[in-house]
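Researcher: Going back to the complex we discussed earlier. I've cleaned up the inputs and rechecked each line, so this should be the final set. Can you rerun the prediction on the complete assembly and write out the structure?
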Amino acid sequence: MRLLVVEDEPDLLESLAQSFREDGYAVDVAQDGREGLHKCKAWDYDAVILDWMLPKLNGIDLLTQLRKVKPTPVLLLTARDTVSDRVLGLDSGADDYLVKPFSLAELLARVRSLIRRSAGHATNVIEIGSLVVNVANKTASQDGVLLDLTAREYALLELLAYHRDKLVSRTMIYDHIFDEDDDTLSNLVDVHISHLRKKLGKDLIETRRGQGYILHV
Ligand code: CA
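Model: Rerun complete. Updated structure for the full complex:
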């Protein structure tokens, strides 16, 4: 899953981006509201973590403009914690709201919840026959045995599992698994799919030549 973090405080931005990457996300960053809005329009992020007080365009104005074109899940991050601030944030189109200072564990859990809801899932566990994908601890098991997956393989499997029985195009994979800094070597989708097939068995993932992949139920 791919996130955008919009935050003007460099140390906080860096530490958030690193924490999300360590948790298995592809992460893009923006340091002001205008850059943030531009990226939100350019990519379909799985979730956006948006600071309220930003240079050039504040978080509320960014949200207002974004909501005219897209339903991207947005968590508003802010030091403003009065009831009227929260109401304004949510009414401007934020899906969730977290007040600084916050705990990293809570932020990660809230982002998981946002992504889960937008994908139409009620729980952290996706079961596909004997395959179980746990999006909370980023693991997958088959017939009760934990699969030994790289972070990329897991991310790819999670994306296919969220869209099980539906075609996942290569474009979707590029948009949701890799971030803007990934180089071409890490973008070898075919290689990751082939490794996944070796670990999951050949029949679970179907290739539609020139179109994409389907994880069968
Ligand atoms: Ca700020």
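Model: Worth noting: The CA atoms of residues 82 and 99 lie 10 Å apart.
Researcher: Good, that matches what I expected from the previous run.
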